[in-house]
Amino acid sequence: MVYMLLGTGFEETEAIAPLDLLRRANVDVLTVGVNGKTVYGGHGIGIEADITLSQMDLTDLEMIILPGGLGGVASVRASKEAMAALQFAWENGKFVAAICAGPTVLADLGITDGKKATCYPGCENGMGSAIMQENAPCVRDGKLITGTSAGCAIAFGLALIAALKGQPAADTVAQQIVIR
What we know:
By secondary structure, this protein is α/β, with parallel strands linked by helices. It contains six helices and eleven strands. It has helices at 12-24, 70-77, 80-91, 102-108, 153-165, 167-176, and strands spanning 2-6, 29-33, 38-40, 46-48, 51-52, 63-66, 95-99, 116-117, 131-132, 138-141, 144-147.
């Protein structure tokens, strides 16, 4: 199972675009409301999460995803349960993915230390000892996947598919949505 954490103030594009792409690739992915079942993004768009934090089953976890958005990132940081889920995923060899300001949360947990990564321009000082890859829309280093911004959400989503189902599956979805 793939879980996408949605904290109040999340960046809508960074959540919905990858979620849509993952579901097109038939990946089992559930949105997880960090602050309850209905979560409002940074631009006031309300999303009804599939489940809440207390309903996650980490024993069935393949990947955990953290969209950016300063409010969403702050919501995740403020949640001991969400932070513990991210740490659990990393310590148990699962994929951990974050985009925009989200990778700074992973840096807080030491997940990005010594790993190639990217983040929203201007958030680099919150990336600890990550090996920053400037101008990269998305970076994968082993089980860590990071993306730069809302404008890179499609590339990020396709990288998530490639990690979980292989590059041919990502290429198929890219063809379906007519990437040029």
